[in-house]
Amino acid sequence: MACLGSLRGEFTCQPSHGICTLSTDKNSSNPVFQRVPARYVLCLMFFLGLMVTFLLRVNINLAIVGMVNTTSLEQSNVSTQQAVPTVQGEFAWDEVEQSVILSSFFWGYLLFQVPGGRVAEVVGAKRVFGGAVVINGILSLVLPFFTRIHWILLLVIRALQGLSQGVMFPALSASVIRWVPLSERARFMSFAVQGASLGTVVAMPLCGLVLNTWGWESVFYVSGVLALIWAAAWSVLMFDTPDLHPRISREERQYLKENLKEQHSDKSSWLTSLPYLCQWIFANLYGTVVDILLKKNKMSLLGVRRMSIIISHLFPAMSLLALSLAGDNTTMAVAIMTIAVTTLGAYSSGYYQNPMDIAPNFAGSLTGLMNAMGSVTGVISTPIAGAILQKDNTTDGWSIIFWISATMYTVCSLPYIICFKAEVQPWNDVDEDTKTAPVLVMSNVVSSEAEDGDVTQGLTKAEQG
To answer: What is d(CA 269, CA 22) in angstroms, rounded to the nearest whole number?
Structure first.
């Protein structure tokens, strides 16, 4: 039988009585771990980890419908982004209290964004990222118990969940710098961070099903159990560096040693988290200003939506063009990227609220469709960026990627700015017999990470202009 060759030097086919035999590295006890590169497993674990944490982040947006009593819901005209049958809750929280509960997560999230990167660099991403998921999972499991004691304890738990999640993206950067060669980072990061988007997409239907089947407490129980299951796999499969990994193949370890250049990463996670910290601050300030403009009738709803798209899409497009000219000037590149990511925060007051503008009764379905279509960009952009960098892994290659991104921002935003109408569509009307709970109107003051789908309660739907 002819020899079929080898795969990465780990498996060889040799003629032996007409049968190919398997040859593995004697330092590895399981050929499966040699067949799948360790860094690929790491990427998948980051993807699933972000997916779980975003589930933990947004689950309360749907669970709160089952927590608040029906009378309170009717009086405050509150509903949920996912259409669910009216349920009788046990907590008589008014609209202000519900707003505080939904925003409490970000009290802690803001505090640990920047220091989280340094902690990951010193302690190691395995313990920091994994510990954040474990803490979130445990807090989710105990949340129903403490909520019944006093609603202030619910605020504390949500703030602690936000505090622990503040380290996750900086920890991701700290790990990538030690595991992924520069030529593979675009693909690695593009895939990994899409777990955040998918987590939001999965959260709403999953939490809605659990809420209707077992009650609001089970939304937090299921989320917490999923987090702990992921953490168990993380503890076995993830290691801070290739040298610490006991099952990595000899070939992959050598490949990483040759392609991972010595880098000074002390500031990498700080610089990575800075744009998102600025985005969070900007999004909340901008959302507050927009709410005031709408409340005082200083601007129409249509004007707000168009202005938000100009800021969240065209400003980043111009920033990306400027970034392509920055060359090797690190300070200028960081400043431009910070501006680009910061202005993205306006998206939560723009297109993200459109489903509630045009079809309140179907806002949940439209938002899910919108997020699903948006997630496709991660699938498309990854191979495009990888192909470009494979041919030209220099600043010129990155410039091409920036120009493509800027073009997409512009091409996709102009039809919206020109054609969008902030008016309820005729097909939104439903019969009284089939009508479900109305749809939660999202405040303009919301979390604004590009990977976020968080919904916070706030301003009741304004007069549409």
So the answer is: 42
DSSP 3-state of 98: helix
Chain centroid to CA 223: how far? 16
For 83, the 3-state DSSP assignment is coil
Could you identify the residue written with the tokens 């089970």?
Answer: 218
pLDDT in tens, the chain (465 residues): 333 333 333 333 444 344 343 333 434 445 544 578 888 899 899 999 999 998 998 888 888 888 887 554 454 444 444 434 444 578 888 777 777 788 788 777 777 766 766 677 677 788 989 999 999 999 999 999 999 999 899 999 998 998 888 888 878 877 888 888 876 776 787 788 878 877 777 887 888 888 888 989 999 999 999 999 999 999 999 888 888 888 888 888 888 888 776 554 445 555 666 777 787 788 778 878 888 888 888 888 888 888 988 988 898 889 888 888 887 777 888 888 888 888 887 877 777 777 777 877 776 567 667 766 765 676 577 667 767 877 777 788 888 888 988 898 888 888 888 888 778 888 877 654 444 444 443 334 333 343 343 433 333 333 344
Measured CA to CA, the distance from residue 12 to residue 177 in angstroms comes to: 32
Q: How many helices (H) and strands (E) would you count in the chain?
A: 19, 4
- Least Cα distance to 172 among 268, 287, 86, 249 occurs for 268
Distance CA 427, CA 406 (A): 34
Q: Under a CB-based contact definition with an 8 Å cutoff, are residues 302 and 351 in contact? A: no
Close Cβ partners of 445 (under 8 Å, ≥ 6 residues apart)? 103, 283, 284, 287, 288, 291, 456, 458
Q: What is the DSSP letter of 297?
A: T
Angle among Cα 128, 106, 110 to the nearest 5 degrees reads 60
CA–CA dist 118, 268 (Å, integer): 9
Comparing C-alpha atoms, which of 312, 373, 305 is closest to residue 339?
312
| Dist. CA 9–CA 12, nearest whole Å | 7
Angle between helix 168-179 and 113-123 (nearest 10): 40
State the alpha helices, DSSP H only, in 124-184.
125-149, 151-165, 168-179
- CB atoms inside a 10 Å sphere around CB 331: 8
Query: CA 337: distance to chain centroid?
Result: 19
CA-CA distance, 69 to 58, in Å (whole number)? 20
Selection from 347, 267, 256, 279 nearest residue 307 by Cα: 347
Contact 32, 55 (CB under 8 A): no
